Amino acid sequence: MKATRAEEIINSPDVIGVLYRSNDVWLEKVDKGTSKAEVTYMEKGNTITVDIDQLVETGPLKLE
Questions:
Q1: From CA 46, how far away is CA 14, in angstroms rounded?
Q2: One matching Pfam family, short form (predicted)?
């Protein structure tokens, strides 16, 4: 994923799925200067900093 797309996802009114190493994550913050993003694991709840290019968009999610 590119930093610009990660920012678009954060600012989107829709919920867009993102994976990091096959785990669902929530994008918290993007740093274009370092190409890093803060993400929170959906299941575990812990927040880590990762390389943006390791994130994979899975598309819009429907909330039930």
A1: 23
A2: SspH
